[in-house]
Design goal:
Structural class: mainly alpha
Number of strands: 0
Helix content: over 70%
Order of helices and strands: HHHH
Distance between the termini: 34 Å
Length: about 80
Amino acid sequence: MATIGPKVREAFHRFGELVAELLKLAALLVFGALMSPQFLMEIPWTGYVFAVLVLLAVRPIALGIALFGSRLGWCEWVTAA
């Protein structure tokens, strides 16, 4: 659509945002529906340790490397991490 012309792109911009938000909501709904106490009990304790390490160590380190040299403030970096 963007290659046809700027007017067409602008006309579909709002519609595209709405569709994207609806798809994100549907994905969260499906993910939440699949979560159950039985599913969580099947995960061994090492799986929970792994998840905590990924969220609190690996992801912030990877983002630190990826955003090195950017002008992103500390608050924005913590939010992304």
